[in-house]
């Protein structure tokens, strides 16, 4: 057992941090406010191989694990240049296709995940299902030519930046009852979608998706119908690990800014950081972010070792811890800055709503607490 990362992982973090700082938070916020996207950053990260660190080497990737991808995600966030779609495209979609895709699907998709040129959104949330995925109704009907998909999804991130969406639906024979998901790759030009106005300052936007009898070829179905629940779970643990890393990166960014400010801003004799009322919330944020990071690394290590069950518990806990830690870190950073905390120039107000996201998505803190109560503690299910 070791509590330090390998020299290779540390070098990866350093290189990614350099790229992140080259773009930085000002770039991200300007893109967000002007309705733009952080495409240049995504493309450069892809060219440098950072978005494909977890794709197998035989498909042009780095051959690493989710721990490596999480390190990339965290370091970009810590530089103020987090890429939300990393939580989805390389983490969920590439992982599911690596583990369950047919040989042809792997050859078609993985080399393009490896260099970031393929961006795939992921759609499970539905208006009438929400946290209860067993209620999803997006349904694929088998035809002579393949499938016809009908349904609706909400809050799907980055659809406008993506070539396709990995859609979680059901086949017609598994239309009701406990979820037996079927996963389909659906090109974004095959259906209609519209943006959801959100009060989050982010270049990555959310959409409502409408599938109105969308015709898909046979091989739009990833893997097999029978392994479907396992396939879905294979993607959800990486998603939680990545969401935690995204949050930890954002929290580190806010904390660094606050510490710099607390060291220099002087309104009495000493810099404000000399006051414990200012210093302690920052110290608390540091502790909570480190704890969340440790749990995230544990979850990634378990996942990369193939222990999906233990990884599931740890990934849920990590996501919970990171969501709580980033909210408190951003709040402490805003407070440390006084009025400047909400001035656009300082970039912290922009993080207030964004930091709340990890408490809600990809799985809410309440659903994580339900999971831990039932799975870890053996308490009865309440819903
Ligand atoms: C910015 C953003 C990006 C997103 N991106 C994506 C994406 O790319 N793809 C995708 O598929 N989805 C995405 N989502 C959706 C997200 O995963 C859901 O919002 C989330 O899972 C919660 O579902 P819901 O919004 O339907 O809330 P609901 O399920 O309606 O829940 C509302 C509240 O009730 C609580 N609650 C519900 N059931 C229980 C229970 N049994 N016990 C206790 N509390 C309960 C919840 O915790 C929550 O606080 C995104 C959401 C946001 C905000």
From TrEMBL:
According to its UniProt entry, the protein's GO biological process terms are:
fatty acid beta-oxidation using acyl-CoA dehydrogenase
Q: Name one GO cellular component term.
A: cytoplasm
Q: What residue stretches are annotated with the Acyl-CoA oxidase/dehydrogenase middle domain?
A: 121-190
Where the record annotates domain Acyl-CoA dehydrogenase/oxidase C-terminal, the positions are: 235-374
Q: Please name the CDD domains in this protein's record.
A: ACAD
Query: What are the alphabetically sorted keywords of the record?
Result: FAD, Flavoprotein, Oxidoreductase
Q: Give the transmembrane ranges.
A: none
Enumerate the spans annotated as Acyl-CoA dehydrogenase/oxidase N-terminal domain. Answer: 7-116
Methyltransferase listed as a keyword: no
Q: To which protein family does this belong?
A: Belongs to the acyl-CoA dehydrogenase family.
Q: What is this protein called?
A: Acyl-CoA dehydrogenase
- Tell me the organism's taxonomic lineage: Bacteria, Bacillati, Actinomycetota, Actinomycetes, Pseudonocardiales
